[in-house]
Amino acid sequence: VVRRRLLQRYEHQPFISCLAGFYSCRWKRYQRRRIEPGKCCCKTGECVFFPLLVGAFCFSLVFLYMWGEAKNDYNNFDWYNYGNLGFWFLWSLVLLIVAAILFMYITLLLVLAMCLLAEGQQLYLHWSHKIGTFLVLCFSVTALFILSVLWGDQWKTVRLSFQITAPYLHIGAITLMVLLSWPVALHAIRADKKVVQIIIVGPYLAILLFLFLIPLGMYSPCIREMGTLGPKPALIGHRGAPMLAPENTEMSFQKTIEHGGDGLETDVTISYDGVPFLMHDSTLRRTTNIKEVYPNDTAQNAALFSWDTLKELNAGTWFLKDKPFSCMSSLSRADQTQAMNQSIYKLSNFLRLADSQNQLVIFDLYRPPEKHPYRNSWINRTLDVILNESRIRPHLVLWLENDMRSFVQSVAPGFQQTMGSKAPVEDLLMDNIVKLNLPYTEMSSEDIRKYSEANITTNLYVINEPWLFSLAWCSGAHSVTTNTVHILKNLRQPLFLMTPQQYNIMWILTDLTSVLFISLIFAL
Length: 524
Description:
The chain is α/β, with parallel strands linked by helices. It folds into two domains: 33-223 and 505-523, no CATH class; 234-280 and 308-494, Alpha-Beta Barrel (TIM Barrel). Helix content is 54%, strand content 8%. The chain has 21 helices and nine strands. It has an eight-stranded parallel barrel, surrounded by four helices. Helix 3 (49-69) packs antiparallel against helix 5 (91-118). The longest helix has 36 residues, at 154-189. The radius of gyration is 30 Å and the shape is elongated. It comes from Cuculus canorus. Keywords: Glycoprotein, Hydrolase, Membrane, Transmembrane, Transmembrane helix.
C-alpha cells in the first residue's frame, strides 16, 4: 500500500512540476513547498499579488467584453482616430486583438494558481509574471478610463447587450462557481479553525446566492410570449452599403438596392456654386483623391469647391486602399473596377435613383460655412432640387432638418416629417412629426410603444451587428439605419427569442444542477 501511494505521488509530480514551472518558474521539486488545506496559500509578500492577479483578470474581462460589444461602432472609433492622426488604420481591430491576448494571458495565470491551490502547493508568482500582471491591470484600467471619457455612450451599448447575453453570462458564471467549489471545499473543510472556514466559504456562498437570484431582475424585450413579436424592421442603407462599395457613391446605393434595402441614408453638402452633393466629412481628404489632385486644398471645406472641380475627383480608390471596415468581404474583379471609377454623387441623381426604385430617403443636411453664397438659402436650394429637379415622390422623403420646418411643411406637405430627438408626444403631433430618428443607444421598448400608439414610428441608427438588430426588432423599432443591409436582410428571426416559461425553466434547471454538483463536491 505504501509503495502504491508513493508511486501515485511520484507519477503525479510531472503535472505539479508543469503547474509550478509555468506559474513560478520552479521546475524542480525541492524548489516547491506544500501547504496544508486551510492554511495561508502564500507568504505575506505574495499575498499582495494574488488579489492583484484577480483584479487584473476582472478588469481585463470587463474591457474585453466592453470592446467586443463595441464592434458595432468600430468604424466610428477608427474615423475618430483618423481625424486626429491624419491617416486611416484599423485601430479598433488592433485594440481587440491586444485585449484578447492580455485576457488569455491573465486567465492562464489565474487557472494555474487555482490548480496549484487545489494541489496544496504554495503560491509564488514569478517576477516576470508580476510585471505582466501589473501591465495588464494598468492597460485595462487606463483603456476603460479613456474610453469612458471620450466614448462614454459605449457603456449604454454594454447595458443593451445584457438584454441579449445575460442568460448566457448567468450560465457561464454558475459554471465557474461550480469549478471553484473544489478548491474552496478542499481548503474550507480541512481548515483547523471555524473562523478560517467562514472566511473561505462565506464570500463564495454570498456570490453564489447573488448569481442564483440575479435573473429576478433580468429584463429583455426578447423574452416575450409566443406570437407577440412585431414585423421585422425595415433596412435603410447608411451611406448606401459602405462595406460593399465606397460610401455615398452611386455604386454604394445600388448595392443597397440589390441586397433588398428599403431605404437610403446620406449626407448633403452644397457646393460653392449651389449644387447639392453627397459628402459626409467636412473635407474631401478621406473619401476622394484630392491629395493627389489639389494637395494644397486638402484641409479646405468641401462646400467651398465648385461642382466642376468636385465632379472631376475620384471617390472610389480610397475604398480599395484603406479598407474602412475590418470585416469587409473581398470584392470581385468587376466590383473593384467599378469602385475605382466612382465619383462624387449629386443629390438630384441620388433622388432620381431612389424614386425609380421606390426607396425611402433620409439625409443630414449640412449648412454651408461663413461667406458661402448659399449659407442663408441652403434649405431653399435643397428643396428646389427635391421638388423641381429630381421630382421624387414626396412621401419617400423623410425630412430631418429642423430649421425652417414650418416653411418646409407649407412648401412640401407630402414629406414625412422626422425628428432627431425624443420629445413629448403632444409636441411631436403639434409639429406633424410622423417618425423619430434616434441613435440606437436611446433604444427603449417602452418609448417605442408609446410613440407607436400615437402613430409615430421609430428609426434607430446605426445598427450593424445582428444581436443589436435582434434587440431593435424585439423592441418594436419600425426601421434601422445600417452599414450591413447584406447581412441583416438574411436574418429571419431575432438571434435571441424565448418565452418567459422557457427562460424560467432554463434558470431553475441551471441553479438546481449547480446546487447538486456543489453539494456533491463539498460532501466528498
